[in-house]
Amino acid sequence: MAAVLATSAGLVAAGAPQAPRPIVLRTEPAGDGISITVVGLSDIAVNARYELEAFGGPPGKSNKSIQKGAARLKPGAPVTLITLRIANVKSGAWGATLRVQPLGGSSYEETAGR
């Protein structure tokens, strides 16, 4: 019996290849904050809708942002779709959720945070 893994996109058999994700979430420290970037890159032409929901900041002063858009990705041409910086996260929590709906493909979600 094949093992099953839970992912944000659903259940997949262990070892089963996952479909390529044309839009991904990247994060990196930025001073006292965090930089959140949504990047599109695909080997084939892809049309997709995406939504980034992010929050963060010091306790009692947290901010929330929701940004949505549509992308028409060209093969092999990386593109930055969103760059968002949240300041003062060293003393507070932060999080980001990216939801992607490729046209004709399976929806998926990526999350990051603490």
Rounded radius of gyration (Å): 16 Å
**Low-pLDDT sequence parts:** 1-12
Give the helices and strands as they follow along the chain. Answer: EEEEEEEEE
Largest sheet: 4 strands, antiparallel
Class by helix and strand content? Answer: mainly beta
Compact description:
The chain has 114 residues and is mainly β. It has no helices and nine strands.
What does this molecule look like?
- The protein is 0% helix and 61% strand.
- It has 114 residues and is an all-beta fold.
- It has a single domain (19-113), classed as Immunoglobulin-like (Sandwich), CATH 2.60.40.
- The strands form 3 sheets. A 4-stranded antiparallel beta sheet has the order 6-5-8-9, with no helix packed on it. It has a 3-stranded antiparallel beta sheet with strand order 3-4-7, with no helix packed on it.
- Strand 8 and strand 9 (108-113) form a beta hairpin.
- It is elongated.
Topology:
Blueprint lengths: L3 E4 L2 E4 L9 E8 L2 E8 L5 E11 L6 E11 L5 E8 L7 E9 L5 E6 L1
Task: Name some characteristics of this structure.
0% helix; disordered N terminus; 9 strands; three-stranded antiparallel beta sheet; mainly beta; 114 residues; Immunoglobulin-like; four-stranded antiparallel beta sheet
